[in-house]
What does this fold into?
Amino acid sequence: MAPPPPYSPPSHHPLLGPPECHDPPPRRARPAPAHRFTDLMDANFNDNGGGDLPRKGYTENNSATFLSTGNPCLDFFFHVVPGTPPESLTRWLESAWAHDPLTALKLVCNLRGVRGTGKLDKEGFHAAATWLFKNHPRTLACNVGAFAGFGYFKDLPEILYRLLEGPDIRARQKSEWQQRKGTKSRRRLQSFPAFSSCNKSRRKKGRYSSTTTTASVPKEVRVANAVARSREEKQKASELRNKKRIAKARKLLKRYNRDGDFRFLHDAVSGHFAHCLTADLEFQKSGEINRISLAAKWCPSLDSSFDLGTLLCESVAKRVFPRDRFPEYEGVEEAHYAYRVRDRLRKDALVPLRRVLELPEVYMSAGRWGDIPYDWVASVAMKLYKDKFLKHDSERFRSYLANVKLGEGHDCRRRTAPSRDCSLT
It folds into this structure.
């Protein structure tokens, strides 16, 4: 049987498809007139200016991100935070300084800003100041006034002290203090038989079981021996303190005479203190109390730790009471002149200005708790002494806190913008 012929559709049923297949092609729109600005944006949309894009990495949540913004100053601002290791801070600061020195200097001030102008990073600021002294000592010295404005006056002697003793001196001192504190605590516990493990056998045998040799020595002799030992220990301690004081002074003088950059910085710090103290004394005479700075508060006291380590009191006193302005010092031997102006700095400058500033420490040391002006207590001092205020002057202090809560407290904080006072040298 022959296969059927292939199917062929009738000619009167053609396949037409959708109507659009038979419409005439649409006319091509005329191109828009060229615009140079738009064409340039389209052409350079993904162009990074011929440079390489910053390297990519991952965040803590393993999300892709750029490891750098492409601007070293912006990287310094975002990456340097309180707790950043000094090595990392130095690396970021070097890159930022190479990119824009003035902006990097402002960022260093922002690092220390304590009045709403920065990050309150004390250790980071001192690490940056150490780098500045090594690489740009004149810039550091010429901006001591700006640093004191953004931070504290006490930052200036602290910079000198760390340059003398090393950048990690505070950490070493804290570790040594903790060790001494632990040793004293152990000795105190061992001095009580009830807490001493070595006296357990003695307690078991009884109170009068052990024979002592002290009973045979008269009481007057034992008291005299104790007084002699105490006097000898005090003499040794006094001699040791005197040796340490002389050693610190010699170390400072050696660095001051040998290192010109350190001498320039030391003179700049003492000069700034002297300038502020002289102006404050004039404000005190004219009655402009509100214009008095905190230089008297943070200027080292005579024979204090900062004074023994930096000799700032002598340097400041000679600038506040120079020979050419005070004829009573003409012809006086230099050593005697230094002694007299140091004592005069304390009597005629620091003491009266600190009294005018109404510092809480002055009233606390005198036992005048009821006279403390809480409106003028700094925030850090308020945090430190709050418990003492509640203990010794509870009623007045609670009343002050209630007024502050109602918005009636006095705000003595000052704000400074870090864009006006920085300069490069």
Notes: The mean pLDDT is 83. The two ends are 113 Å apart (CA to CA).
